[in-house]
Design goal:
It contains no helices and 41 strands. It is mainly β.
Length: 552
C-alpha cells in the first residue's frame, strides 16, 4: 500500500499520512466503454449522459484490483442489497452499498463490510452469468445450463460473508430474463426442439428447489426461439413471443393460500408481426408491424364489476361495449359515433373515415351495432366491411340498409324515412377463437387428486357444453376414418329474433351428438363472430366399462 503526507494547511510540519493509489497506476474508468444513464430531469424530459464513476483511491493492481468487468462484456445490471450488481463473464461484481458508482475498496490494508464484492461462479462447465433475480434467500444467478445462488449466512452482506452456491442444473434461454410470479420464479429453456417454461418454488439457501415444467401439457405447441417475456403478477398472466412473429403466447394462473388452483395456456394471433411488448399497470402494450408501419396496441388486462376493461389508473372504463352486459370481441376495437356516419345516397351506402392505426393491417375489418336509446332492439348485427379512397381519404363503407334500418328498425309509430344513422357502431378486426377439447376419459376425484382411467373402454354418446353469455359459434367433431361434422349454433330468442340480428343468451346448455370412441374423437369449439362464446364447463354421457381389468 502507499501513503501520502498531507501537511496542515498544505504546509510542511504537522500533518497526516493518508492512503493513496500506487504512483503510475490507472485510477479512472474509460467512460466511453462504461454504461450510460438516462435520468428524468422534468415532467416530459429525459437526459442521456455518461456517469461520473468514482476513481480508485488506494492500493496497487493487486491490493485494490480492478473490477473483473474491466476488459469483459457486461451482460446485465441489477440491484441487490442496496448495491449495484454487474454480471460479467463468470463474475458477479457489486458496488459499495448506497454508492452505486463506486467499485473500489476503501483501504488496501484491510477489508470492511462496505467494500465491493467480486465473486466468481465455480463450475465444471463454462458458467458465464447472463441474468439474475432476487428472492428472499439471495440472488439467483443464471448461466446457460446452471443456476447459482449468491447469498450470505450473516445478517450483513460483505466481502467476508458473501458466497455463491450451485442451485440447479437447467438450461436457460440467455436471450430472455427470469421473472417473478409472486412467491415463485420462472424462466425459459431453449435447449430442445421446443421451448420450456420452468417454474421454481422453495428457493432456499440450503437444499434443492422444486422445479416444474409448466409447458408439459403444451410441449409441442410452445414455439422455439422465444425472445421476449412480459409479466403481470397482479393479473397472474405471462406473455411470450418471438421477434417478427404474429403469435403471442399466454400463461394464465390462479394461486391462493400457496396453492395453484388453476392454470391454462392460450395463444393470440395479432394483426401484424410483434416487435416488442411489455406490461404497464393493468395493460399489455404491443408494438405491431404491418405493411412496414409500426403501431402500438393496448390490451387491458383488468375488468371492472360490469366486465368492462379499466383504463390504467383512472378507474374508468374504456371498453367499447354494446351495453353494460356483453363485450364485443373484435381486435383493436373502437367506437364510431353515429354522428361520424354519413349516408351516400348516390352509391346507397353509409361511410365514415377510417381511424388512425387501421390503415396498415391486412386483417378483415368488421362492424358491430351498438343499440341507441331509440333503437334498443337492434342488437348484435355484425358484418364484414371494406375500405375505399374518397377524395384522398381512406373510408369504410357499410351496406345501404345500414343508413337507419327503416322502416323495420325505427321507433314504433315512426314512418319517416330518416337517412341519418342513429346507432353507434364498433369497428375492429375479426379473429378466430378456437378451443380444442382434450381427450375424454372417465375420471374419479379423490380429495385434491383426479385419476383418469386411460385403459378403460369409453363410447361417448353426447356432449353437453355449458355456456355463459354466448352468441354465434360452431362445433366441429373429427372422428378417425369418418368425415368431420361442423354445426353452427345460433341462439334464437322467442319473439325477439329479427333478420340479420344475433341475440345473446345469458346462459345455455348445448347438447352435441357424438357416438364415438373417446380415443378416436376430437371436438373443437370455434367462434369468429363479435358476440361472446363463453364456455364454463363440459359434461359427457356414454358407455364405460373397465374391460374386466382389476385396478390396483
Amino acid at each position: 500500500y502507499y501513503m501520502k503526507f498531507f501537511g496542515k494547511n498544505d504546509k510542511s510540519g504537522p500533518g497526516t499520512w493518508e492512503e493513496c493509489p500506487a504512483p503510475g497506476r490507472k485510477v479512472a474508468f474509460n467512460p466511453d466503454t462504461m454504461p450510460i444513464q438516462m435520468a428524468r430531469t422534468s415532467a416530459n424530459t429525459f437526459t442521456v449522459s455518461q456517469i461520473a464513476w468514482d476513481n480508485v483511491l488506494v492500493g496497487t493492481d493487486v491490493t485494490a484490483a480492478e473490477p473483473s468487468f474491466i476488459g469483459n462484456k457486461i451482460n446485465k445490471m441489477l440491484f441487490f442489497r442496496n448495491r449495484m450488481v454487474m454480471l460479467s463473464d463468470e463474475n458477479v461484481i457489486m458496488s459499495q452499498p448506497g454508492d452505486f458508482f463506486n467499485f473500489w475498496p476503501k483501504s488496501a490494508m484491510t477489508f470492511t463490510v462496505q467494500d465491493v464484492i467480486d465473486l466468481s461462479c465455480s463450475s465444471d462447465t463454462p458458467a458465464i452469468v447472463y441474468d439474475g433475480i432476487q428472492v428472499n434467500a439471495g440472488l439467483v444467478l443464471f448461466t446457460k445450463n446452471q443456476q447459482f445462488m449468491l447469498t450470505t449466512d450473516s445478517d450483513v452482506l460483505s466481502p467476508m460473508t458473501a458466497k455463491i452456491n450451485a442451485l440447479s442444473n437447467y438450461n436457460f434461454n440467455s436471450k430472455t430474463s427470469p421473472i417473478s410470479l409472486g412467491t415463485t420464479i420462472a424462466f425459459l429453456d431453449n435447449a430442445g426442439k421446443y421451448s420450456r417454461f420452468w417454474e421454481v418454488a422453495r428457493v432456499l439457501r440450503e437444499g434443492e428447489p422444486d422445479v416444474i415444467d409448466q409447458t408439459k401439457v403444451v410441449s409441442k405447441l410452445f414455439d422455439k426461439d422465444l425472445v421476449k417475456i412480459s409479466n403481470s403478477r397482479e393479473n397472474s398472466i405471462v406473455f411470450f413471443s418471438k421477434k417478427d412473429s404474429a403469435t403471442l403466447y399466454g400463461f394464465r394462473y390462479f394461486t391462493t393460500n400457496q396453492k395453484r388452483m388453476q392454470q391454462a395456456w392460450f395463444q393470440w394471433k395479432l394483426s401484424g408481426t410483434i416487435q416488442h411488448h411489455g406490461v404497464l399497470d393493468d395493460a399489455l402494450y404491443v408494438i405491431v408491424r404491418s405493411n412496414s408501419k409500426d403501431t402500438m396496441q393496448k390490451f387491458s388486462l383488468k375488468l371492472d364489476e360490469n366486465g368492462h376493461f379499466i383504463d390504467d389508473n383512472k378507474g374508468t372504463t374504456t371498453d367499447t361495449t354494446d351495453d353494460v352486459t356483453y363485450r364485443v370481441h373484435l381486435d383493436n376495437s373502437t367506437k364510431i359515433a353515429s354522428g361520424s356516419l354519413t349516408y351516400d345516397a348516390t352509391n346507397d351506402w353509409t361511410k365514415f373515415t377510417l381511424p388512425d392505426g387501421y390503415n396498415n393491417s391486412t386483417g378483415q375489418l368488421a362492424v358491430f351495432v351498438v343499440p341507441s336509446s331509440t333503437d334498443t332492439t337492434f342488437q348484435g348485427r355484425s358484418e364484414n366491411v371494406s375500405t375505399f379512397v374518397d377524395s384522398g381519404v381512406t373510408k369504410v363503407k357499410l351496406p345501404g340498409n345500414w343508413k337507419t334500418y327503416d322502416p323495420e328498425f325505427i321507433a314504433d309509430g315512426d314512418t319517416t324515412d330518416d337517412v341519418t344513422p342513429a346507432n353507434n357502431i364498433i369497428l375492429g378486426y375479426q379473429f378466430d377463437m378456437e378451443v380444442t377439447l382434450p381427450t375424454i376419459y372417465n375420471t374419479q376425484v379423490s380429495g385434491t387428486t383426479s385419476i383418469a382411467d386411460i385403459n378403460g373402454s369409453l363410447i361417448v354418446h353426447r356432449l353437453k357444453m355449458n355456456f355463459g353469455p354466448a352468441g354465434l359459434y360452431t362445433t366441429t367433431i373429427d372422428r378417425v376414418g369418418k368425415p368431420s361434422y361442423t354445426e353452427t349454433w345460433e341462439p334464437t330468442i322467442s319473439d325477439q329474433y329479427g333478420a340479420n340480428r344475433v341475440q345473446i343468451n345469458d346462459s345455455s346448455t348445448q347438447t352435441i351428438p357424438v357416438y364415438e370412441r373417446n380415443k378416436n374423437l376430437t371436438v373443437k369449439l370455434k367462434s369468429t363472430h363479435p358476440t361472446p362464446a363463453t364456455l364454463y364447463s363440459m359434461t359427457w354421457e356414454g358407455d364405460y366399462t373397465t374391460q374386466y381389468y382389476q385396478r390396483v
